[in-house]
Amino acid sequence: MSETLKIALTAFAGVAVFTLGQIVQKWLIEPVQQQRRAIAKVVYQVSYYAIQHEGYHFELQQEARTKFREAAAGLLESTAVIPLYRMLSALSIVPKQNIVIDVTEALIKLADDVNYESLHQAEQALHELLKIFPAKKPLTWGRAVQKN
């Protein structure tokens, strides 16, 4: 094999590997990361509103309702763009579809009735469904002490 042919084949192989890597990144890795960010946003929104100490006045309830609906829609959107979702969920790379649907339904129910009790129930449910933090000790444990 001539030296020129070796150089050409090496260059072609390099371009092919780079292109394949870019396709995998754009097609699989970035959508999975986007879903993980959406899940983090869901957990953040619920935890943020669960630890509000000034009470749940009308404006705060309206804001929370909007944020919860946006988080639910964002989670569904990020899930819809992931190709081969069933295979990836079988490999435990992404949450199973029924878990995503349960989380979305919990957020929508929470948006319909924002109060102290519903926020803490939703927080517990999210921790159990998504296995983010231990469900035994939610992030808002200090709130109960201040309430008394």
Number of helices: 6
Number of strands: 0
Low-confidence stretches: 138-148
Spatial shape: elongated
Please give the largest β-sheet. none
Radius of gyration, in Å, reads 22 Å
Helix fraction bin: over 70%
Order of helices and strands: HHHHHH
User: How far do the termini sit from each other?
Assistant: 83 Å
Number of domains: 1
Structural class category: mainly alpha
**How much is the average pLDDT?**
86
Strand content: under 5%
Question: What's a quick, concise take on this entry?
Answer:
78% of the residues lie in helices and 0% in strands. By secondary structure, the protein is mainly alpha-helical. Residues 138-148 have low confidence and may be disordered.
Keyword list:
mainly alpha; 6 helices; 0% strand; disordered C terminus
Structure, explained:
The protein has 148 residues and is mainly alpha-helical. It has one domain (3-147). Helix content is 78%, strand content 0%. It has six helices and no strands. The protein has helices at residues 3-50, 58-80, 85-90, 97-112, 116-130, 141-147. Helix 1 runs antiparallel to helix 2 (58-80). It is elongated, with a radius of gyration of 22 Å. The relative contact order is 0.12.
